[in-house]
């Protein structure tokens, strides 16, 4: 191949080809970048409210909701293989993106429709009557979405790359960074907006959380994404599908293995590479290409571990945030909003890295190669988990001591008129004053207990406690009817506070937003947000107002005395069942900073690397392989969450950190033996060896291209080479 300087090439290509350029970039990538922005808005927006939809619309429990969520994410990163096959062997990237985007948009619309409770709410009670219908429809929607988002993902990145000419390799790298920025701008906006949309109220018969809006807006964005992509139609460089590449690759590998086994006796000369055993039947070029791809795929084996840690931001770290305090003075941060720190940091870190850090490292004469960057990225992610573990240890110091699965915990609340001596068999003695409670929960390793009170006559009653539960024994003004009430045994969700009232007043009471409570009864918990909350207590004409300022994640039982109206709610006593969160959410910032730095080094670099190291006809295949590492990472999260129930959360964080360090060491060794290649060069070399002169080849392609109007720009490059 004749090497022309970039400058010369630039002049000639500009004259010959029609592809419009702006500042050295093909204009067509503008459409691709905008398309990706809308698509990621759609994807991350839908994902942001998905767990809540499962939990509070379909009424699944926490475990099922999170499992299905991670399974869905895993599916989204497995389908890229399908997309790559369709694109490379059948439709080409352009058509694949269009068709699968249509599937995707239909999926989003289906999903949005499945969230309209009015469809099956015939009795108009605000909950759907036919859950099967909603579940079936939403699962269908999710499958279509997974097919669409995963299917187009490897194509869009690779299609973007295809728009660049050989002399634009610098711009190509910038493109991948800008591409990543757009992904994050989309994900940032949508994770901020869709939860707000969800919190709106809407509905025909009854007003409900507005899931149709929260899923509908992403659906609209997906349609816009499709329209933008089609709008750029005339400008793209479209490469034709190269035939069923995957199938030929499989056949070729299969033959090599079979042939190797047939000739396993030592009398046959060894071959340099086991793929060389396909030489008899297959094209040298194909074999060379397969070798390149296999080398990269082999390198991918350790990578899922990074994603295993990375994707726990959305689950474990958000749960951790619910046990922290989000009071930043000027504003209050909700636990699930903490996740947006990641895209915000990406938007600042990618430019800083690209413009400052990486050039600086290069100036220092250090060779910070892509694989080195990825290794360092892994180490950063490991450090993030160490940081998370340290934060967890701080939190644990302040957390209540929850019962294990075999234990039961009990607290006693006394609303009787005098101090009581409470004996719980066999040997627990508690002295509890009137309108007071036992200092803390008493832990039992058995369930059957007998409680006796030192009243006259003595009152004795047997109870059976809940295994693994927390309960309160409520002693009302008539102690003979004392009863158990179940307590929260984990931090209330989303950093809210769980509160309830015991009615020690002599008649029914009405409390703002709650059902009326009978005398001696206890309300169920209600969740209240952080901040000052007011409650009006009312009985007939009498009322008083009770206000209290709440922090994050506490639980209280309020005891209402008989004198409540005569002293204007002053005498309500408060039993603290669970302390408010005291460790500040800002302590999570270091771990977010570390994981995001790791992400820039690992993920952005990996994206570029996967494109640059792939032979031309297998670019989307390698993109798919790259995304697959993400799917496997999520599957590992699923397995570990199911199996590895470590007793301490900080220990689990440290376990993941050390696993990733171990994996990164293995990866660095593998990377050490990897030699970077220029796929185009190798292909040219193989062609030469085959005796297929580059000119000859050029002629062939030229003839082909003359028939094809779309491919004019390629021609420009070719002619400069001749
Ligand atoms: N910073 C988080 C949002 C983001 O950059 N996502 C990228 C990269 C990615 C793949 N798997 C997890 N992350 C994308 O969706 O392609």
From TrEMBL:
At the top level, the lineage of the source is Eukaryota
Checking PROSITE patterns in the record gives:
PTR2_1 (PS01022), PTR2_2 (PS01023)
InterPro entries tied to this protein: MFS_trans_sf, POT_fam, PTR2_symporter_CS
Primary localization: membrane
Q: Where is the composition biased (Basic and acidic residues)?
A: 699-715
Sorted keywords for this record are: Cell membrane, Glycoprotein, Membrane, Peptide transport, Protein transport, Symport, Transmembrane, Transmembrane helix, Transport
**Membrane topology type, per the record?**
Multi-pass membrane protein
Q: What GO terms in the biological process aspect are recorded for it?
A: oligopeptide transport; protein transport
**Membrane-crossing residue ranges in chain numbering:** 64-85, 97-119, 131-152, 172-193, 213-237, 292-310, 374-393, 621-641, 653-677
Which residues constitute the signal peptide according to the record? none
- Please list where the region (Disordered) is annotated: 688-722
GO CC field: apical plasma membrane
Task: Write out the annotated subcellular location.
Answer: Apical cell membrane; Cell membrane; Membrane
**Which reaction is this enzyme known to catalyze?**
glycyl-L-proline(out) + H(+)(out) = glycyl-L-proline(in) + H(+)(in); L-alanyl-L-prolylglycine(out) + H(+)(out) = L-alanyl-L-prolylglycine(in) + H(+)(in); L-methionyl-L-phenylalanyl-L-methionine(out) + H(+)(out) = L-methionyl-L-phenylalanyl-L-methionine(in) + H(+)(in); L-alanyl-L-proline(out) + H(+)(out) = L-alanyl-L-proline(in) + H(+)(in)
Task: List, in alphabetical order, the Gene Ontology terms for molecular function in this entry.
Answer: symporter activity
**What does the protein in this record do?**
Electrogenic proton-coupled amino-acid transporter that transports oligopeptides of 2 to 4 amino acids with a preference for dipeptides. Transports neutral and monovalently charged peptides with a proton to peptide stoichiometry of 1:1 or 2:1. Primarily responsible for the absorption of dietary di- and tripeptides from the small intestinal lumen. Mediates transepithelial transport of muramyl and N-formylated bacterial dipeptides contributing to recognition of pathogenic bacteria by the mucosal immune system.
Instruction: Tell me its family.
Output: Belongs to the major facilitator superfamily. Proton-dependent oligopeptide transporter (POT/PTR) (TC 2.A.17) family.
What protein am I looking at?
A: Solute carrier family 15 member 1
Which organism encodes this protein? Cyprinus carpio carpio
């Amino acid at each position: 191949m004749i090497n022309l300087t970039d400058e010369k090439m630039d002049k000639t290509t500009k004259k010959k080809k029609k592809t419009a350029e702006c500042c050295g970039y093909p204009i067509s990538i503008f459409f691709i970048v905008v398309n990706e922005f809308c698509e990621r808005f759609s994807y991350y927006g839908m994902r942001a409210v998905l767990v809540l939809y499962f939990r509070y619309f379909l009424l699944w429990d926490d475990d099922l909701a999170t499992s299905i969520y991670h399974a869905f994410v895993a599916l989204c990163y497995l389908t890229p293989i399908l997309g790559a096959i369709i694109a490379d062997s059948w439709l080409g990237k352009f058509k694949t993106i269009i068709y699968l985007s249509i599937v995707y948009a239909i999926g989003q619309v289906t999903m949005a429709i499945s969230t309209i409770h009015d469809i099956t709410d015939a009795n108009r009670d605000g909950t759907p009557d036919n859950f099967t219908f909603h579940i079936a429809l939403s699962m269908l929607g999710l499958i279509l979405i997974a097919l669409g988002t995963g299917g187009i993902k490897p194509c869009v990145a690779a299609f973007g790359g295809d728009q660049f000419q050989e002399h634009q390799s610098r711009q190509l790298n910038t493109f991948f960074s800008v591409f990543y920025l757009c992904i994050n701008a989309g994900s940032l906006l949508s994770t901020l907006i869709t939860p707000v949309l969800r919190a709106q109220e809407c509905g025909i018969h009854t007003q409900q959380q507005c899931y149709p809006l929260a899923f509908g807006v992403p659906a609209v964005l997906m349609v816009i994404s499709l329209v933008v992509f089609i709008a750029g139609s005339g400008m793209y460089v479209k490469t034709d599908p190269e035939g069923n590449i995957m199938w030929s690759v499989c056949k070729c590998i299969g033959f090599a293995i079979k042939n190797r086994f047939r000739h396993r006796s030592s009398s046959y000369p060894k071959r340099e590479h086991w793929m060389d055993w396909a030489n008899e039947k297959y094209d040298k070029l194909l074999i060379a290409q397969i070798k390149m791809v296999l080398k990269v795929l082999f390198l991918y084996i350790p990578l899922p571990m990074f994603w295993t840690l990375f994707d726990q931001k959305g689950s474990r770290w958000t749960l951790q945030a619910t046990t922290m305090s989000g009071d930043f003075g000027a504003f209050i941060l909700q636990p699930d909003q903490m996740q947006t720190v990641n895209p915000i940091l990406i938007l600042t870190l990618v430019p800083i890295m690209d413009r400052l850090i990486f050039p600086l490292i290069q100036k220092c004469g250090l060779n910070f190669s892509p694989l080195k960057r990825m290794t360092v990225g892994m180490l950063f992610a490991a450090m993030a988990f160490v940081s998370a573990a340290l934060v967890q240890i701080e939190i644990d110091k302040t957390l209540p001591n929850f019962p294990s699965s075999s234990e039961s915990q009990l607290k006693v609340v006394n609303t009787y008129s005098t101090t009581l001596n409470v004996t719980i068999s066999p040997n627990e003695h508690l002295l509890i004053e009137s309108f007071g409670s036992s200092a803390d929960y008493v832990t039992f390793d058995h369930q059957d207990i007998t409680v006796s009170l030192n009243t006259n006559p003595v009152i004795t009653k047997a109870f059976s406690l809940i295994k693994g539960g927390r309960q309160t024994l409520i002693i009302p003004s008539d102690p003979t009817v004392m009863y158990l009430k179940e307590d929260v045994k984990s931090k209330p969700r989303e950093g809210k506070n769980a509160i309830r009232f015991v009615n020690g007043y002599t008649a029914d009471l009405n409390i703002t937003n709650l059902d009326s409570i009978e005398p001696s009864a206890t309300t169920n918990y209600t969740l209240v947000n952080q901040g000052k909350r007011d409650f009006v207590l009312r009985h007939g004409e009498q009322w008083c107002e009770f206000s209290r300022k709440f922090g994050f994640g506490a639980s209280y039982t309020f005891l209402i005395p008989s004198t409540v109206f005569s002293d204007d709610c002053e005498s309500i006593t408060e039993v603290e069942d669970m302390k408010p969160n005291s460790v500040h959410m800002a302590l999570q910032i270091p771990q977010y900073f570390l994981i995001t730095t790791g992400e820039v080094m690992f993920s952005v670099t990996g994206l570029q690397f996967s494109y640059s190291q792939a032979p031309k006809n297998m670019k989307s295949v390698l993109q798919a392989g790259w995304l697959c590492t993400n799917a496997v990472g999520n599957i590992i999260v699923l397995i570990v969450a199911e199996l590895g129930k470590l007793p301490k959360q900080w220990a689990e964080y440290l376990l993941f950190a050390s696993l990733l360090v171990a994996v990164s060491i293995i990866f660095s060794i593998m990377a050490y033996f990897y030699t970077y290649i220029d796929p185009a060069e190798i292909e040219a070399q193989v062609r030469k060896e085959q005796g297929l002169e580059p000119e000859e080849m050029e002629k062939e392609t030229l003839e082909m291209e003359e028939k094809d109007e779309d491919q004019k720009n390629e021609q420009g490059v070719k002619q400069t080479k001749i």
